[in-house]
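Milestone M4 deliverable, item 7.
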Amino acid sequence: MNKFKEQKPRRLKKKIFRSWLTSTVSISLVLLMLGSLLLIIVNADRLSDYVREQIGFTLVLKDDLKEAEIKRLERVLAASEYIKSTRYIDKNTAAEELTRELGEDFIGFLGFNPLFASMDVKLFASYTHSDSLAIIEKEFLKYPQVKEVYYQKDLFGLINENVHKISIFLLIVVVLTGFIFVSLINNTIRLSIYSERFTINTMQLVGAARSFIRKPFLIRSLTIGLIGALFANILLAASMYAFRKELEGIIDPAGFWVLGPVLLIVTLLGIAISYTSTLLAVNKFLKMKFDELFY
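Output delivered:
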């Protein structure tokens, strides 16, 4: 009989421990997703700039240019404030790339190489608006080495038109997912408190004050929120470090400092949501009568 009495509290403690462990893991995963979303929001402008900077001009060069003239053009372009990068493509390289794309040797069929040497030019994002592109195109045509200028006007226009729409859509997604994340954490904690509703009622029956009953639950909620946020931050920081090379184009290397404030926000949200959800859940069960605890 005594063994049974000793085993019962142990089983209860294990049940409560598993419940709070589940809550901690759930909060960690939700906060990880929330932190990832915050990073995307913070770098939304950079992501837009990254897309714009992948599209550029192709300067078709005149035939029989001397190497000195090509080098001079490269220096002039590199010195321009609106140009991010340049890449010279000679006739042979252009033919090799086109052959790989077509999957057949068109030079052998034609008997000569019809392609021209060219210069691929990428612009900084701030100069990819329609009015700037028209001015830059005219500037490129003034160079004596340049025969023609090509760039995807429609694609640039489409990107510029949709940047505002994407920002609004992203804001809506943030609000909805934020609501979902808060609801998930709240429901997880409510279920944990629900498993201890009879304990709360028993403490009330023996005359414990409501503030006394709330205290251990609130302290535990702060601990769970802090531990959950800590695990989420470790995973988030580790992911950023592991994929830092892949993210360099999307997240400015100098802007990795943004991770600090994001980790702080995740920590504060984890603590605040956990504390608030616990407070509301405990207050609810404090107001319930014994008969209502069975439903």
